[in-house]
Write the C-alpha coordinates for this entry.
Amino acid sequence: MSDKILIERDDAVVTLRINDPSTMNAMTPQMAQDLRQALLSEVKTARAVILAGHPRAFCAGANLNAAMPQDVGGFDVGQTLEEDYNPLMQTIRALPVPIISAVQGAAAGVGASLALACDIIVAGKSAYFLEAFARIGLIPDGGATWLLTRAVGRVRAMEMMLLAEKIPAPQAFDWGLITRLAEDDAVEQTALVMARTLAQGPSRSYALIREAAWSAADSDFTTALETERRLQKQAGETPDFAEGLAAFQQKRAARFHE
Protein backbone atom coordinates (compact mmCIF):
# COMPACT_ATOMS: atom_id res chain seq x y z
CA MET A 1 0.00 0.00 0.00
CA SER A 2 1.43 3.37 -1.04
CA ASP A 3 1.13 6.58 0.96
CA LYS A 4 -1.27 7.88 -1.70
CA ILE A 5 -4.15 6.00 -0.02
CA LEU A 6 -4.42 6.56 3.72
CA ILE A 7 -6.45 4.36 6.06
CA GLU A 8 -8.01 5.99 9.11
CA ARG A 9 -10.05 3.84 11.51
CA ASP A 10 -12.69 5.02 13.99
CA ASP A 11 -14.08 1.91 15.71
CA ALA A 12 -16.21 0.23 13.03
CA VAL A 13 -15.88 3.12 10.57
CA VAL A 14 -12.94 3.31 8.18
CA THR A 15 -12.01 6.37 6.14
CA LEU A 16 -9.99 5.79 2.98
CA ARG A 17 -8.33 9.05 2.01
CA ILE A 18 -6.95 9.80 -1.45
CA ASN A 19 -3.71 11.50 -0.57
CA ASP A 20 -1.74 13.29 -3.26
CA PRO A 21 -2.47 17.00 -2.66
CA SER A 22 0.30 18.14 -5.01
CA THR A 23 -1.75 16.80 -7.95
CA MET A 24 -5.16 17.64 -6.45
CA ASN A 25 -5.45 13.92 -5.69
CA ALA A 26 -5.28 12.92 -9.36
CA MET A 27 -5.49 9.14 -9.61
CA THR A 28 -2.87 6.86 -11.10
CA PRO A 29 -3.46 3.23 -12.05
CA GLN A 30 -1.44 2.20 -8.99
CA MET A 31 -3.61 4.36 -6.72
CA ALA A 32 -6.72 2.75 -8.20
CA GLN A 33 -5.31 -0.68 -7.47
CA ASP A 34 -4.31 0.36 -3.94
CA LEU A 35 -7.73 1.83 -3.21
CA ARG A 36 -9.41 -1.35 -4.41
CA GLN A 37 -7.19 -3.52 -2.23
CA ALA A 38 -7.82 -1.26 0.77
CA LEU A 39 -11.57 -1.58 0.27
CA LEU A 40 -11.41 -5.35 -0.03
CA SER A 41 -9.28 -5.60 3.10
CA GLU A 42 -11.05 -3.08 5.32
CA VAL A 43 -14.61 -4.29 4.73
CA LYS A 44 -13.68 -7.55 6.43
CA THR A 45 -13.96 -5.70 9.74
CA ALA A 46 -15.47 -2.26 9.02
CA ARG A 47 -19.23 -1.73 9.11
CA ALA A 48 -19.18 1.55 7.17
CA VAL A 49 -16.70 3.24 4.84
CA ILE A 50 -15.99 6.89 4.07
CA LEU A 51 -14.13 7.86 0.90
CA ALA A 52 -12.45 11.26 1.29
CA GLY A 53 -9.80 13.52 -0.17
CA HIS A 54 -8.54 16.93 0.94
CA PRO A 55 -10.08 20.42 1.20
CA ARG A 56 -8.78 21.48 -2.21
CA ALA A 57 -9.82 18.35 -4.05
CA PHE A 58 -11.65 15.11 -3.49
CA CYS A 59 -10.05 13.82 -6.69
CA ALA A 60 -9.23 15.81 -9.82
CA GLY A 61 -9.54 12.79 -12.12
CA ALA A 62 -6.87 10.64 -13.69
CA ASN A 63 -3.25 11.74 -13.57
CA LEU A 64 -2.64 11.95 -17.31
CA ASN A 65 1.07 12.59 -16.86
CA ALA A 66 1.41 9.26 -15.10
CA ALA A 67 -0.92 7.27 -17.35
CA MET A 68 -0.17 8.45 -20.88
CA PRO A 69 2.91 7.93 -23.06
CA GLN A 70 4.48 10.87 -24.93
CA ASP A 71 3.28 9.41 -28.23
CA VAL A 72 -0.33 8.25 -27.98
CA GLY A 73 -0.40 6.87 -31.52
CA GLY A 74 -1.71 3.31 -31.27
CA PHE A 75 -2.03 3.60 -27.49
CA ASP A 76 -5.12 1.89 -26.04
CA VAL A 77 -6.50 4.49 -23.64
CA GLY A 78 -9.18 2.04 -22.54
CA GLN A 79 -6.75 -0.60 -21.31
CA THR A 80 -6.20 1.05 -17.93
CA LEU A 81 -9.96 1.17 -17.48
CA GLU A 82 -10.19 -2.57 -17.98
CA GLU A 83 -7.21 -3.35 -15.76
CA ASP A 84 -7.33 -0.70 -13.03
CA TYR A 85 -10.40 1.54 -12.82
CA ASN A 86 -13.26 -0.77 -13.81
CA PRO A 87 -12.29 -3.38 -11.17
CA LEU A 88 -12.28 -0.57 -8.58
CA MET A 89 -15.75 0.60 -9.59
CA GLN A 90 -17.07 -2.97 -9.57
CA THR A 91 -15.63 -3.42 -6.08
CA ILE A 92 -17.46 -0.33 -4.86
CA ARG A 93 -20.69 -1.65 -6.34
CA ALA A 94 -20.29 -5.04 -4.65
CA LEU A 95 -19.25 -3.82 -1.18
CA PRO A 96 -21.10 -5.55 1.67
CA VAL A 97 -21.16 -2.33 3.75
CA PRO A 98 -22.46 1.21 3.13
CA ILE A 99 -20.02 3.71 1.66
CA ILE A 100 -20.19 7.50 1.94
CA SER A 101 -18.20 10.00 -0.11
CA ALA A 102 -17.07 13.21 1.60
CA VAL A 103 -16.46 15.65 -1.25
CA GLN A 104 -14.48 18.83 -0.82
CA GLY A 105 -13.13 20.89 -3.71
CA ALA A 106 -12.89 19.25 -7.11
CA ALA A 107 -14.52 15.96 -8.01
CA ALA A 108 -13.58 15.66 -11.65
CA GLY A 109 -13.34 12.88 -14.21
CA VAL A 110 -12.93 9.49 -12.59
CA GLY A 111 -12.92 11.34 -9.25
CA ALA A 112 -16.53 12.33 -9.87
CA SER A 113 -17.31 8.70 -10.71
CA LEU A 114 -15.77 7.56 -7.42
CA ALA A 115 -17.81 10.09 -5.46
CA LEU A 116 -21.08 9.39 -7.25
CA ALA A 117 -20.78 5.60 -6.99
CA CYS A 118 -21.10 5.84 -3.20
CA ASP A 119 -24.38 5.31 -1.39
CA ILE A 120 -24.47 8.73 0.26
CA ILE A 121 -22.68 11.75 -1.22
CA VAL A 122 -21.88 14.61 1.17
CA ALA A 123 -20.42 17.69 -0.52
CA GLY A 124 -19.17 21.02 0.77
CA LYS A 125 -20.79 24.17 -0.56
CA SER A 126 -17.60 25.10 -2.43
CA ALA A 127 -17.19 21.67 -4.01
CA TYR A 128 -17.89 21.06 -7.67
CA PHE A 129 -18.32 18.20 -10.12
CA LEU A 130 -16.75 18.22 -13.56
CA GLU A 131 -16.89 15.87 -16.52
CA ALA A 132 -13.97 17.33 -18.47
CA PHE A 133 -13.31 14.42 -20.82
CA ALA A 134 -14.60 16.21 -23.93
CA ARG A 135 -11.95 18.89 -23.43
CA ILE A 136 -9.28 16.35 -24.34
CA GLY A 137 -11.27 14.36 -26.85
CA LEU A 138 -12.26 11.44 -24.62
CA ILE A 139 -15.53 10.14 -23.18
CA PRO A 140 -16.54 10.00 -19.50
CA ASP A 141 -15.45 6.81 -17.77
CA GLY A 142 -15.45 5.10 -14.40
CA GLY A 143 -19.12 4.36 -15.03
CA ALA A 144 -19.94 8.08 -15.37
CA THR A 145 -22.30 7.64 -18.33
CA TRP A 146 -24.36 5.15 -16.28
CA LEU A 147 -24.15 7.00 -12.97
CA LEU A 148 -25.02 10.42 -14.36
CA THR A 149 -27.94 9.40 -16.56
CA ARG A 150 -29.54 7.54 -13.66
CA ALA A 151 -28.90 10.30 -11.15
CA VAL A 152 -29.96 13.40 -13.09
CA GLY A 153 -31.53 12.07 -16.31
CA ARG A 154 -30.22 11.88 -19.85
CA VAL A 155 -30.58 15.58 -20.72
CA ARG A 156 -28.72 16.99 -17.73
CA ALA A 157 -26.14 14.23 -17.98
CA MET A 158 -25.58 15.13 -21.63
CA GLU A 159 -25.11 18.78 -20.71
CA MET A 160 -22.50 17.87 -18.11
CA MET A 161 -20.64 15.57 -20.49
CA LEU A 162 -20.83 17.68 -23.66
CA LEU A 163 -20.23 21.16 -22.25
CA ALA A 164 -17.68 19.97 -19.67
CA GLU A 165 -18.62 22.77 -17.28
CA LYS A 166 -18.24 22.80 -13.52
CA ILE A 167 -21.41 21.93 -11.63
CA PRO A 168 -21.24 23.67 -8.23
CA ALA A 169 -22.34 21.58 -5.27
CA PRO A 170 -25.52 23.63 -4.60
CA GLN A 171 -26.60 23.03 -8.21
CA ALA A 172 -25.65 19.36 -7.93
CA PHE A 173 -27.82 19.15 -4.82
CA ASP A 174 -30.77 20.77 -6.62
CA TRP A 175 -30.35 18.29 -9.47
CA GLY A 176 -30.30 15.31 -7.10
CA LEU A 177 -26.70 14.44 -7.92
CA ILE A 178 -25.65 14.56 -4.26
CA THR A 179 -27.54 13.73 -1.09
CA ARG A 180 -26.21 16.17 1.51
CA LEU A 181 -24.89 19.73 1.23
CA ALA A 182 -22.69 20.84 4.13
CA GLU A 183 -20.52 23.74 5.13
CA ASP A 184 -17.01 23.21 3.78
CA ASP A 185 -15.49 22.66 7.21
CA ALA A 186 -18.24 20.25 8.24
CA VAL A 187 -18.15 17.80 5.33
CA GLU A 188 -16.14 15.03 6.94
CA GLN A 189 -17.82 15.38 10.33
CA THR A 190 -21.21 15.13 8.64
CA ALA A 191 -20.08 11.99 6.85
CA LEU A 192 -18.62 10.54 10.03
CA VAL A 193 -21.81 11.04 12.02
CA MET A 194 -23.80 9.18 9.36
CA ALA A 195 -21.16 6.45 9.06
CA ARG A 196 -21.20 5.88 12.82
CA THR A 197 -24.98 5.54 12.68
CA LEU A 198 -24.73 3.05 9.84
CA ALA A 199 -22.02 1.12 11.69
CA GLN A 200 -24.52 0.44 14.47
CA GLY A 201 -27.20 -0.77 12.08
CA PRO A 202 -28.17 -4.16 10.60
CA SER A 203 -25.09 -4.92 8.50
CA ARG A 204 -26.58 -7.90 6.66
CA SER A 205 -29.68 -5.90 5.79
CA TYR A 206 -27.50 -3.08 4.45
CA ALA A 207 -25.57 -5.51 2.25
CA LEU A 208 -28.81 -6.84 0.79
CA ILE A 209 -30.24 -3.32 0.34
CA ARG A 210 -27.14 -2.36 -1.64
CA GLU A 211 -27.42 -5.48 -3.79
CA ALA A 212 -31.11 -4.90 -4.44
CA ALA A 213 -30.71 -1.21 -5.28
CA TRP A 214 -27.83 -1.71 -7.70
CA SER A 215 -29.73 -4.57 -9.33
CA ALA A 216 -32.89 -2.47 -9.61
CA ALA A 217 -31.02 0.24 -11.52
CA ASP A 218 -30.42 -2.31 -14.27
CA SER A 219 -33.76 -4.13 -14.08
CA ASP A 220 -37.34 -3.86 -15.23
CA PHE A 221 -40.04 -3.70 -12.56
CA THR A 222 -40.88 -7.39 -12.64
CA THR A 223 -37.25 -8.38 -12.23
CA ALA A 224 -36.90 -5.93 -9.34
CA LEU A 225 -39.85 -7.57 -7.59
CA GLU A 226 -38.29 -10.99 -8.06
CA THR A 227 -34.95 -9.78 -6.71
CA GLU A 228 -36.65 -8.24 -3.67
CA ARG A 229 -38.43 -11.49 -2.96
CA ARG A 230 -35.19 -13.49 -3.15
CA LEU A 231 -33.22 -11.09 -0.98
CA GLN A 232 -36.03 -10.60 1.52
CA LYS A 233 -35.94 -14.32 2.24
CA GLN A 234 -32.21 -13.99 3.00
CA ALA A 235 -32.78 -10.94 5.19
CA GLY A 236 -35.51 -12.72 7.15
CA GLU A 237 -33.11 -15.52 8.05
CA THR A 238 -30.52 -13.24 9.71
CA PRO A 239 -30.04 -12.47 13.41
CA ASP A 240 -30.51 -8.79 12.49
CA PHE A 241 -34.15 -9.44 11.59
CA ALA A 242 -34.75 -11.45 14.74
CA GLU A 243 -33.30 -8.65 16.86
CA GLY A 244 -35.09 -5.90 14.94
CA LEU A 245 -38.45 -7.63 15.28
CA ALA A 246 -37.90 -8.31 18.98
CA ALA A 247 -36.95 -4.68 19.56
CA PHE A 248 -40.06 -3.49 17.72
CA GLN A 249 -42.33 -5.77 19.72
CA GLN A 250 -40.65 -4.80 23.00
CA LYS A 251 -40.69 -1.07 22.11
CA ARG A 252 -36.93 -0.63 22.57
CA ALA A 253 -33.94 0.32 20.42
CA ALA A 254 -32.51 -2.52 18.39
CA ARG A 255 -29.00 -3.74 19.18
CA PHE A 256 -27.38 -5.03 16.03
CA HIS A 257 -24.10 -6.90 16.51
CA GLU A 258 -23.67 -9.15 13.47
